[in-house]
User: Fold this.
Amino acid sequence: MKKWLIIFGGIVLTGLGMVAALVYIVDPFFQYHKPLNNFPYIVDHQVNMNPGLAKNMDYDSILLGSSMTVSFNTDWFYDYMGLKTQKLSYNGAYPKDQSNIMEIVFGAKKDRIKQVFLGIDELNYSSTPEQTKFEIPEYLYDKNPFNDVKYLLNKDVILDYILRAAADPKDKSEWNMIYKPWWQDEHYQKALVLMYYEPGPIKEQEPEIMPYLERIEKNLELNILPYIEAHPETTFTCFYPPYSILYWNNVVRAKELKLVIEKYRTMTERLLKYDNVEVFFFQNREEIICDLNNYADYTHYHGRICEYMVQSFSTGRHRITKDNLEQELEILYRLASEYDYEGIFEDWYN
Assistant:
């Protein structure tokens, strides 16, 4: 009996070793090495895959942000700016999510990062500083090799990211468009946006501003500014993505326009204190945000808008400075406060 137990135990250990070896060799979450040349990787899980991409891919710049950044084609950064950019987006990202991944990026690449492109969603920067969008799997983010067993012997990793990928290679991800949304060109049209849009609630009182600004200051202080200060050799290109005019309809209905403007002012003034920071403002571009054919819903825009932003990064178009900040905020305030929102729906129904 003892002999059979030993044989059985040996078979089990051998099987587990072979499974772990398979995961290590293919490494679908890129924890140990760069992707194999001929394996059809499926790159679709930001929380699990970003740390490995940050550790082991070849790049000299990174793209960070929420789902507002997933439609960027990273080839554009090379075409317009000569940068080899790695996309490290987190849908619904909070500042702590950005901090978690920048810790890995700068730990792996040190002083080799030329530029960080950081999309800023004002709503999420007034969160609590420790808040993340999703629970972080520490075994993929830390440097402890002993808890890697959770990755090496993970059933979902083997079935979904090795066997499924190998069996159906046509589903492999395009490296320049990882995490791309499911929307196709035909989904970006005014009729569909309005069909699914529900206006936000109307409120009677304006919110208190200071609590929001205090949380923004804390988030910047704990999650963003330490990396800016520690890496003066790196340019941090921060940008405010262009939500559609329907987003501003919600803001106005909630009597939050003054609050949002003050958030932008606070964040921008704080960021512009650093010589290695540049800020780009797209929220007040009427030709973009008022054309709902640029959108798949009330915030998410077509890839052509992403390319426009990359072009702007390369030329300095729509860059905010201390001198033009108030002017740009005034343009946004007037556009959002005076816009004929009822006319959007009247045109659609007629």
Summary: The chain has one domain: 47-147+173-349. The CA atoms of residues 218 and 301 lie 30 Å apart. The longest helix spans residues 2-26.
